[in-house]
Amino acid sequence: MNNKLIGIILIIVGAIMLVWTGFTYTKKEKVVDAGPIQISADKQHTVNWPPYLGGILLIGGIVIVVTSKKSN
Predict the structure, then answer these.
(1) Distances from the Cα of 25 to the Cαs of 2, 49, 57, 69, in angstroms?
(2) Are residues 51 and 15 in contact, defined by beta-carbon separation less than 8 angstroms?
(3) Are 53 and 68 in contact, with CB atoms under 8 Å apart?
(4) What would the pLDDT profile of 11-65 be if each residue is shown by its tens digit?
(5) Which residues make Cβ contacts (< 8 Å) with residue 28, sequence separation at least 6?
(6) Per the structure, how many domains does the chain have?
């Protein structure tokens, strides 16, 4: 992969991370497991990341793209 492509990918990922600061997913977990009887419940888990991380990726991608243009 060349540097320009890596920079563009970082810009896209950084912009997405600035817009969406996390996501939620549902997972089935066993509550009771007593022989043949099993009871499960849906539990929601949330994954969050700080918005400044998206900004760092965005700025890093821009720097990589700008410096790769100068070297080519």
Answers:
(1) 34, 15, 24, 40
(2) no
(3) no
(4) 999 999 999 989 999 999 888 888 888 888 999 999 999 989 999 999 999 999 9
(5) 40, 41, 42, 43
(6) 1
Range of the domain at 20: 3-71
Assign 72 a pLDDT band (cuts: 50, 70, 90): low
Q: If DSSP states are collapsed to H, E and C, what string results for the chain?
A: CCHHHHHHHHHHHHHHHHHCCEEEEEEEEEEEEECCEEEEEEEEEEEECCHHHHHHHHHHHHHHHHHHHHHC
